[in-house]
Amino acid sequence: MAEHSSSVGFYILIFAILLVLTATTVGAAFINLGPLNPILALGIATVKALLVVLFFMHVKGASEKMTKVVILAGLFWLLLLLGLTLADYGTRLWS
Amino acid sequence: MSTTAIAVAEHENYLNKEYGIKSWLLTTDHKRIALLYLMSITFFFFIGGFFALLIRLELLTPAGDLVQADTYNKLFTMHGMVMVFFFLIPVVPATLGNFLVPMMIGAKDLAFPRINLLSWYLYMIGGVLIMHCMLTGGVDTGWTFYTPYSTAFTNTKIIEAGLAAFVAGFSSIFTGLNFIVTVHRMRAPGMTWSRLPLFIWSQYATSIIMILGTPVIAITIVLVAAERLFHLGIFDPKLGGDPLLFQHLFWFYSHPAVYIMILPSMGIISEIIPCFSRKRIFGYKFVALSSIGIAVLGFLVWAHHMFVAGMSVYAALVFSFLSFLVAIPSAIKIFNWTATMYKGSISYQTPMLYAFGFLGLFTIGGLTGLFLASLGIDVHVTDTYFVVAHFHYIMVGGVLMGYLGGMHFWWPKISGRMYPEGWGRLAALIVFIGFNLTFFPQFILGYLGMPRRYWDYSHMPEFQILNVLSTAGSTILGVGYLLPMVYFLWSMRYGKLAPDNPWNAAGLEWKTSSPPTTYNFDETPVVDFEAYDYEHIPDREVPGES
Ligand code: HEM
Ligand SMILES: [Cu+2]
Q: Is the previous residue joined to B237 through a cis bond, with omega within 30 degrees of 0?
């Protein structure tokens, strides 16, 4: 399990990318892009989350089926949270 | 607990293997960690109970005379916080679960013994924080921390209380993680999924909720802190936030959390009823899978706490419907337990008395949940004592009854001693009477319109009689809880030595010595029998009968 891409330098690289992306998020918040602001922020956040999951949490290269099940379950639950919450926000103005 | 008080049986076991405070504080033995948890959780139970008695005392008279309004707000907040985060959530998984999960599946320990110990330390750090918060002023928002009051208005110690819940939350994530990996990886040969004790199934389902739900409350607490400290607009409409977002996030965890509380107790009931009916559980698969069903469906109903908060009526309809669905797996369990008892040879030992209590009280709690899930009724009784009665029937009548039943059932295994059966039955009766006297009047009060969280009801003095009954009941209930505490402690020194299997029960935990050795089994057991194999276990005189 421990072999793949485990050199310290690699992790430092990922960490550096995360820092740069954080700085980008902060920077982007000062520019008015209208509705694009949240989209950009969420997009960057998603990329960061992916980096963490794939490399820091060793999901890339994991051979266990269970790992996939766990990740899918996590994503599915996130979908429940967002989906049902939006069921409220999306229909508030109907009546 | 002083270790010398447990100068137990002759054989070497987990209690007498090592002595001294260090052997406890640095232990990685799941059984010792269970006892560490037992002591700390019991401590917090009595702290929470103390606040409850003060609340009831204030409500004895209509006038707000015992404490100030502000103090009263803090009393019910601290009561709720301590009871929810430091008692109900961890109580069964961290004590009986820790003790039994490895033993029931034939393993030596949990998969991550050190993480298990870490989870106890996290719980304790959370506990110290909440105690410090309490002693230096407390919080007044209610255990629900609703915004914008919690972020923009109150000047009580939100951050510290939030941090306490945050840290304690991680202890529960670690417990859940440990259980899931243990159940997947460490079952003894022959212990297939369809032979797992139902207690294990319930712990497994609970662990799923702990892992998937707890991070959401953690991040919600962080957001509250961020808004409070840095005025980031998340929940406060003045800052461009949305207050209902808080409620969505909070209840996304906190409704499933009520199933973190009840599922383990349901697992206990599934162990007790077959044993004291001498029958195989009726519909094993359904009882097992209904635990998973509850865990999943439990995540789909949270907004039933927000019906009157201004959410979309269309979403409210959906959540109302989904709330009805979640009652189905609970009902499956109730019916299957009842069917298990049918034509069984039932004996009325203390654990079984608690199981009876659970059946009746949980059913009332669950059915009133359905009342509340109906939009029309909820508008009438929301935020009244009806809601308070509903959740206490489930949390106290259900969770606590199950827990006490389980403590009596497994006490011989845990301590190597029998508790006094006569006192046990008496206490069970006192708890049952005290409980109903305390909480049944609250259904009526709520239905008649008494709001919750009021400290003064002098404009409605006609409510006093029911409040007096409730306060009287709470003192009886208090006695009912003190009794087991006293005779459990007593039995550690003076109780009769317990045989390995005092109830003639099925299950691997009864095949080890009482108390078990450090690694539970001398050699890894091989499982060649089905769960709840009571047809093949002879009846025997049950010791502890006087
Ligand atoms: C199984 C264990 C359950 C527990 C431990 C539990 C606990 C609770 C708690 C703590 C509250 C009040 C929260 C607050 O406002 O402070 C509550 C409210 C509520 N419960 Fe339950 N509950 C359970 C089951 C159910 C079920 C099965 C249903 C419906 C199917 C249900 C429906 C409701 C509703 C609709 C409310 C909101 C009432 C209102 O605020 O107007 N509950 N419950
Ligand atoms: Cu709920």
A: no
- Number of residue pairs across A and B with CB atoms under 8 Å? 41
Asked if B271 and B197 touch (Cβ cutoff 8 Å), the reply is yes
Buried/exposed code over B72-101 (b: 16+ C-beta within 10 A; e: otherwise): bbbbbbbbbbbbbbbbbbbbbbbbbbbbbb
Give the contacts of B89 (CB within 8 A, at least 6 positions apart): B168, B172, B257, B260, B261
Interchain CB distance below 8 Å, B315 and A84? yes
Kindly report the nearest CA distance between residue A16 and chain B, in angstroms: 24
Spatial distance between the Cα atoms of B414 and B431, rounded to a whole number of angstroms: 23
**Tokens 């460490």 found at:** B186
Q: Is B372 in the pocket of ligand 1 (CB under 6 A)?
A: yes
- Ligand 1 binding pocket includes B369 (Cβ within 6 Å): yes
Q: What is the pLDDT of residues B337-366, one digit of tens each?
A: 999 999 999 999 999 999 999 999 999 999
pTM for the model: 0.92
DSSP per residue over A66-95, as a string? Answer: HHHHHHHHHHHHHHHHHHHHHHHHHHTT--
Average pLDDT, chain B: 94
Query: Is the previous residue joined to B274 through a cis bond, with omega within 30 degrees of 0?
Result: no
Q: Identify the H or E element spanning B398.
A: none
Domain boundaries, chain B: 27-536
The whole-angstrom separation of Cα B94 and Cα B201 is 15
Closest of B16, B39, B36 to residue B26, by C-alpha: B36
Is B299 in Cβ contact with A80 (below 8 Å)? yes
Q: How far apart are CA B133 and CA A12, in angstroms?
A: 39
Contacts of B292 in chain A (CB under 8 A): none
Q: Cα distance from B377 to chain A (closest Cα, Å)? A: 21
Residue B391 CB–ligand 1 contact under 6 Å:
yes
Q: CA-CA distance, B281 to B531, in Å (whole number)?
A: 9
Report CA(B207)–ligand 2 centroid distance (Å).
18
Residue A65 near chain B (CB below 8 Å): no
Select from 2.60.40.420, 3.10.20.740, 1.20.210.10, 3.60.21.10 the CATH code of B27-536. Answer: 1.20.210.10
Whole-angstrom distance, CA of residue A71 vs CA of residue B157? 36
DSSP string, B4-36: GGG---SS--TTTSS-SHHHHHT---HHHHHHH
Burial readout A22-55 (b: 16 or more C-beta within 10 A, e: otherwise): eeebeeeeeeeeeeeeeebbeeeeeebeebeeeb
Q: Assess contact for B385 and B445: CB atoms under 8 A.
A: yes
* pLDDT one-digit tens code per residue, B203-218: 999 999 999 999 999 9
A87·B318 Cβ contact <8 A: yes
Give pLDDT tens digits for B51-69. 999 999 999 999 999 999 9
Among the listed residues B170, B165, B177, the one whose alpha carbon sits nearest the alpha carbon of residue B86? B165
Chain B contact probe: residue of A25, A37, A69, A88 with most B CBs at under 10 A = A88
Tokens at residue B53, please? Answer: 């008695």
